[in-house]
C-alpha cells in the first residue's frame, strides 16, 4: 500500500484549535484548501513546540508584520483527525519567501513500526504525511491564535502551580 500524502500548498486557512473542556482538551491543526477542512491531532506539548519554532523562524527571517489579523473563528466541523502528528519539520524557502511545514503521522495504521525521522516517500510502511506551504502572515496568525489557546488551559494553583481540575485539586503544599 502506498503512503498517504496530503500536499496542501498555499492553503486558505491554517490554525490551531481545541475540542473539549480544559484538562480534557484535544488539540488539532486544521488546514483549509478549496473549502475543504483537513484536521490533524497533536499533543499540547507539540503545539507549544511548533508555536515556539514558528516564532523563531519569523524572527530570524524578519517577516513579522504589525498588520496581521488574528483568526478567532472556530474550527470547521466536523472535526475528524486524518492522523495524529508525530515528527514535524519546518523550512524557510528563500526562493519563494514561504515556510514549508511537514508533519508525519506517528505510525501507519497497517504497521506498528514507529518512525523517529521523516521517512522518504517510497519507504515501505511509512506513516501518512502532511505537507504545507505557508505565507509568513499565515504563520504569524497561527502563532497569535496558538499562544492564546495554549494559555487557556486550567487555572494554576496559587500554592503549587499545578493545574486545578474542574472537580478540584489536591495540592501537595496544603496540609
Describe the structure.
Helices cover 19% and strands 31% of the residues. The chain has helices at residues 44-60, 136-151, and strands spanning 5-9, 13-19, 26-33, 36-42, 81-93, 98-105, 129-134. Strands 1-7-6-5-4-3-2 form a seven-stranded mixed beta sheet. The mean pLDDT is 89.
> Structural class, from helix and strand content?
alpha/beta
If you compute it from the alpha carbons, what radius of gyration comes out, rounded to the nearest whole angstrom? 18 Å
- How do the SSEs run, as a string of H and E? EEEEHEEEH
For the termini, the CA-CA separation is: 58 Å
Shape: globular
* Strand tally: 7
How many structurally independent domains?
1
Outline the low-pLDDT stretches.
none
Can you summarize this structure?
This protein is of the alpha/beta class.
Name a few traits of the molecule.
Secreted effector protein pipB2 fold, alpha/beta, 31% strand, 175 residues, 7-stranded mixed β-sheet
Topology:
Elements: E1 5-9, E2 13-19, E3 26-33, E4 36-42, H1 44-60, E5 81-93, E6 98-105, E7 129-134, H2 136-151
Parallel strand pairs: 1-7, 4-5
Antiparallel strand pairs: 2-3, 3-4, 5-6, 6-7
Amino acid at each position: 500500500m502506498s503512503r498517504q500524502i496530503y500536499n496542501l500548498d498555499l492553503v486558505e486557512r491554517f490554525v490551531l484549535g481545541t475540542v473539549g473542556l480544559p484538562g480534557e482538551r484535544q488539540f488539532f491543526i486544521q488546514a483549509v484548501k478549496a473549502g475543504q477542512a483537513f484536521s490533524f491531532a497533536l499533543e499540547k506539548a507539540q503545539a507549544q513546540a511548533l508555536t515556539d519554532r514558528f516564532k523563531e523562524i519569523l524572527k530570524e527571517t524578519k517577516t513579522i508584520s504589525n498588520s496581521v489579523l488574528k483568526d478567532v473563528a472556530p474550527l470547521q466541523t466536523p472535526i475528524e483527525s486524518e492522523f495524529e502528528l508525530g515528527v514535524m519539520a519546518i523550512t524557510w524557502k528563500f526562493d519563494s519567501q514561504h515556510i514549508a511545514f511537514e508533519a508525519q503521522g506517528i505510525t501507519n495504521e497497517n504497521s506498528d513500526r514507529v518512525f523517529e525521522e521523516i521517512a522518504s516517500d517510497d519507504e515501505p510502511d511509512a506513516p501518512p504525511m502532511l505537507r504545507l506551504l505557508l505565507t509568513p502572515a499565515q504563520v504569524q496568525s497561527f502563532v497569535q491564535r496558538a499562544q492564546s489557546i495554549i494559555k487557556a488551559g486550567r487555572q494554576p494553583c496559587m500554592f503549587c502551580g499545578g493545574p486545578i481540575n474542574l472537580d478540584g485539586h489536591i495540592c501537595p503544599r496544603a496540609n
